[in-house]
Amino acid sequence: MDTQGKTITCQAAIAWGKNSISIEEVQVEPPKTGEVRIKLISSGICGTDDHVLKGELPMKFPLVPGHEGAGIVESIGNGVSSVKPGDKVLTLIIPQCGECSFCLHPKGNFCDKQDVLPCSGLMLDGTSRFSCKGEKIYHSFRVSTFTEYTVVPEIAVAKIDAASPMDKVCLISCGVPTGYGAAVRSAKVTPGSTCVVYGLGGVGSAIVMGCKASGASRIIGVDINEEKFPRARALGVTDCLNPRALQKPVQEVVMEMTGIGVDFAFEAIGHIETMVSAWNSCNNSYGVCVIIGVASPDSKLCLEAIKIITGKTLKGVCLGDYKTRDCIPQIVSDYLQNKINIDPLVTHQLPFKQLHKALELYHAGKTIRCVLLF
Ligand code: APR
Ligand code: ZN
Ligand code: ZN
Predict the structure, then answer these.
(1) What's the sign of the alpha-carbon dihedral 196, 198, 200, 204?
(2) How far, in Å, from the CA of 110 to the mean position of ligand 3?
(3) What pLDDT is recorded for position 1?
(4) Closest CA to 169 of 331, 338, 358
(5) CA 311 from chain center: how many Å?
(6) Domain residue spans in the chain?
């Protein structure tokens, strides 16, 4: 059936408010100028989605959650030239408009056209493409993916290799570049260095992969869920710490283990307490602390000001510092050429209809990444 130019009725998850999600029949309007409608094939469940569903980010409800998506272009709006119907694509939580000050700067990746800070929940023209029983439903970060069909700005779409295995590559939409890039591009982990990674979920695991690929000699993994340790060790973690099983603060243990503190510390949880622990795990001279976890917007970091003069670096990173449309298709190609292996991160795959079971597995700490299949 030709759906081009028509509203599509399909199944989508709707978060009605905090901790209230259900699968509903929704209407998805055709893409407007500069937009692309995508038939989703897979979507990962990322830690950021969990923050959204718990109401920890200032998002407008009701919304269609999800952002880590892989799919096939169903139709395109006027003016779209980089993709055509049938192309395999990934959704990008950070777009690349190519025109704003950040896109034009060689180092910038936090495109002005993103909808993360702040979240409008609307497309670039200020309207929504989703409705349910006549009610307007908001988008999440302009890339909602817990839905059979979505509409996304062209600048938030990356065309990928036609040979991509669509049941897994959704991880390269967010979790893999977020973690891997934090290590190789933002921190620039050096051979023989010591690292600590707070949080061994999907993003933390990709950080570990990046540290390992950069030749780190010691990678300390920190998580309160010891079920994460065997998989983390398989990826390259050399020492595992459960802060709840320690007699003293975890950063003190990291200090004792390394003598002076690590060269590179990463936070991939989203709690201010673990951000401070990561900062205090770094050595005082040339230590680099990279924050990847998304904290709630009203929380504040409290650091000892005197420590800042010692030479340590504190930085944050979003989507691995990649210029997304330029770089993310290359990560997919690297995966296809066995230069990077994302397979160990995909621990579960479930049909979209079993979203609640997938969320239960996530909350029980059983998954690294659970992929929803449409
Ligand atoms: N101390 C240590 N580990 C913790 C703590 C804590 N206080 N609280 C949670 N964790 C662990 C969890 O057990 C889990 O293994 O942090 C990990 C988080 O992993 P995921 O839930 O899989 O989330 P992920 O997708 O990796 O995202 C992590 O990065 O991009 C951001 O918004 C994202 O803030 C989130 C973070
Ligand atoms: Zn831009
Ligand atoms: Zn994500």
Answers:
(1) negative
(2) 14
(3) 66
(4) 331
(5) 29
(6) 8-173+342-373, 179-318
271 lines ligand 1 (CB under 6 A): yes
CATH fold of the domain at 179-318:
Rossmann fold (3.40.50)
Ligand 1 nearest atom to the CA of residue 222, by list position: 2
User: Which own/partner pairs from 121-127 qualify as long-range (CB within 8 Å, at least 24 positions apart)?
Assistant: 121/59, 121/60, 121/63, 123/32, 123/35, 123/151, 123/153, 124/34, 124/153, 125/32
Burial of 245 (C-beta count, 10 Å sphere; 0-12/13-18/19+): exposed
pLDDT, position 307: 85
Q: What is the pLDDT of residue 359?
A: 98
Residue nearest to ligand 1 atom 25, measured at CA: 47
- Name the residue of 52, 178, 228, 269 to mutate for ligand 1: max ligand atoms within 8 A of Cβ: 269
**CATH no. for 8-173+342-373:** 3.90.180.10
pLDDT averages per 10-residue partition of the chain, 374 residues = 94 97 98 98 98 95 98 98 98 98 97 96 98 98 98 98 98 98 98 98 98 98 98 98 98 98 98 98 97 94 92 97 98 98 98 98 98 98
